[in-house]
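Hi everyone, sorry if this is the wrong subforum. Our group has a chain we'd like a structural model of before ordering constructs, and none of us has done structure prediction before. Sequence below.
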Amino acid sequence: MTPAIQQSVRFRTSPQTLFSMYLDSRKHTESTGAPAKISKKAGGKFTAFAGQLEGKNLLIMRGKRLVQLWRAHHWKKDDWSVLILTFSRVAGGAQVDLVHVGVPAYDQKGVREGWPKYYWRPWKKYLAER
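Answer:
Right subforum, don't worry. Here is the predicted structure as tokens:
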């Protein structure tokens, strides 16, 4: 088993805003700058970054937690991971706690570096411009 990727990032907004930025297709697309289509239902599928990411929602706790079966398009066919995003209120705003389990060894570095590059920094820029 590969090591879990864990990241915690703070934003000057509410947990609900961050949750919506991830789970709402239009907001996800606007905040990352890349096309996304995301079901808002457990069992529903998603794609992000014009199909470069795909998966299925396993659990949705509105405004609080999201658990997804997740994979990158370039991964081997049977390689899947589990992504857990937890959204909470903290002093000055909100925090996202990410736990990403089962990322294949050959893409650990890419995924670990990809979250800040493709989500956290674009989200901060998006929120600052609103």
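For your construct planning: The beta strands are 5-11, 36-38, 45-48, 53-61, 65-72, 81-90, 93-101. The two ends are 41 Å apart (CA to CA).
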